[in-house]
Fold this sequence. Notes:
The structure holds two protein chains of two kinds.
Chain A: H1 8-16, H2 23-27, E1 39-44, H3 53-62, E2 88-96, E3 102-110, H4 118-122, E4 128-130, E5 136-138, H5 149-152, E6 159-160, E7 167-168, H6 174-178, H7 184-188, E8 194-198, H8 199-215, E9 222-224, E10 237-241, H9 261-288
Parallel strand pairs in A: 1-10
Antiparallel strand pairs in A: 1-8, 2-3, 4-5, 6-7, 9-10
Chain B: H1 40-66, H2 71-85, H3 87-95, H4 114-139, H5 155-178, H6 183-186, H7 191-213, H8 219-247, H9 257-282, H10 287-317, H11 319-325
Helix pairs in contact in B: 1-2, 1-3, 1-5, 1-7, 1-10, 2-4, 2-7, 4-5, 5-7, 7-8, 7-10, 8-9, 8-10, 9-10
Amino acid sequence: MTTLNTSGDEMQTSERTMRRPGIWHSLKIVEPPAAREAMGFFTDATLCIGCKACEVACKQWNGLPADGAQWTGQSYDNTTQLSATTWRHVTFAEQALPDGGVRWLFNSDVCKHCTAAPCQQVCPTGALIRNEFDNVYVQQDVCNGCGYCIPACPFGVLGRSEADGRAHKCTLCYDRQKDGLEPACAKACPTDSILFGPVEELRQRAAERLGEVRAKGQPEAYLYGAEDAGEYKRLNAFFLLTERPAAYNLPEAPHEPTASMKERYAWSALAGIGLSILSGLIFARGARK
Amino acid sequence: MDLSDLVDEKYKRSPHGAAHEDPADAYRDVPFLKQPVWKNEIAAYFFLGGISAGSALLGSIAQLAGGPKYRKLAHMAHYVSFVTFLPCPALLIDDLGVPTKFHHMLRIFKPSSPMNLGSWAFAVHGAGATTLLLRLLASEGKLPPMSKVLLVLPEKLLAALGIPSSLLLAGYTGVLLGTTSIPVWYTSRLLGALFTSSSVATGAAALELTTAFGGMYTKATGNSLSSIRLVADASALMAYAAYVRTSGRAARPLWTGEQRILNMASLATLGLSIAVGAIDTKRDLGTPVRILGALCGLASGGLMRWAIVRAGRVSALDRQGALDAMRATEERPGWIASH
Lengths: 289, 339
């Protein structure tokens, strides 16, 4: 991938911001960086060996605290879910087979970086944005911890940190991408179960890989999130899975919460305007009496 | 110490230890949705903000449609609207993870976010309620003489201008909850209509109480407010029934645990309020009974908001319920194995 340079312009900006910016400076509207090629993840569950190197690399690079040593008894999964402090999570679904054996289903879960992201759409402050790499990113200096993104996400990705009160999630290593590096999890993955790259390329590779996996005896394999699915648009971080989504603790067909928003306002307006007119009539009748 | 003591009870259910015959059961105790962080402050805001919006709306309508007979009522409505609005900013700010950044709510205008649009409605409504209050106090000579400049503002114009933001404030909260992935909030489209109806009903109830205790209870205002409360309560009851019905199985969290008690109490008080209002139209029940009806109406609105906010927290933890709510259908094929 291309290497990004730290241009002279950016150096000047950082020098300028060394001084405490005044109110006019903070009100100035800054042009966002020009859009670049959309980048994303293709996570291939058939290649995941459950080593959790991605979880560790993510925590280490992003300086995320430990979640406390809890022994869940849930297979070898003591992380259980994504959270404000866990941005990669390897699911371990342990299946008891009829012959007495055990099968393990691993998948490294992550923020899906939805191309139409409910969290980004409902964020009232504009803290959640699509950055120049078409990734969904929380601007920490803008987030005021209102918590709206948390129930908006159909995958339960976002959490509010107890430490700083803000919403946090996978940044798709925005900082590393700016410097031309791949995200820490993809870098650490020993089996290339996690691939990082331009989304269009990844989708092609995923389609090829799907054919390969199916031909090699896993006809039930499918891509989770590579294509639009009705109202929910495709994901920039998609997966190759072999079991039903629930086995990886994923929903089959999430709703797009904002898709029905106008209808909700319409019903609300109907009730409000209807009651206003009736109230007006009641007052007018009372005035005549 | 036996190491198995450290293992959570819920993981000991499978005869195969951590393994399951159906791999979809592996995470059956781990909800995939996150619990909303909103708690009692938000339920309290929904209630008080609803009264503030409802009473402002009724005050404005009384001023525009009712004429001089309702002038005192309209003034009382604007007092009530201001006073019930007062604690709201504190409730909302206290709920934030970073309270000092509360003003970030208004750093952009983003109608795709009901919370952003609601914040603007909230700000406009608050500014309107304050202006109307100051104008009222000035007209009554309760402010320094120079405040008479406020009288330049035509009262009816201010009232009319306030209607859109009051309407939005009354119902956006229901739209906000609906625009999430929480099944008990998302599934029905009618939460906004329910909250709007309840806002008008509780606004009318609050006005009945304040006019009664403020010694300005006349037959005309009493009758009108009682009728409006009856109509709005009936609308709330219909919206509630329709909300539960259109939610289908997703409505289950409304009828479990504490929400069950809250909901039953809300419906019972709503029923009482409607009964009092309905009988009152046939024959005069007298002020004390009407006050009782108004208290019931007010309580019902509060209990309903509380129950629904709580139900959302429960709904998020109901993994099976959430999986069912997001099952693939023909128009929503989702991502499932194609075989």
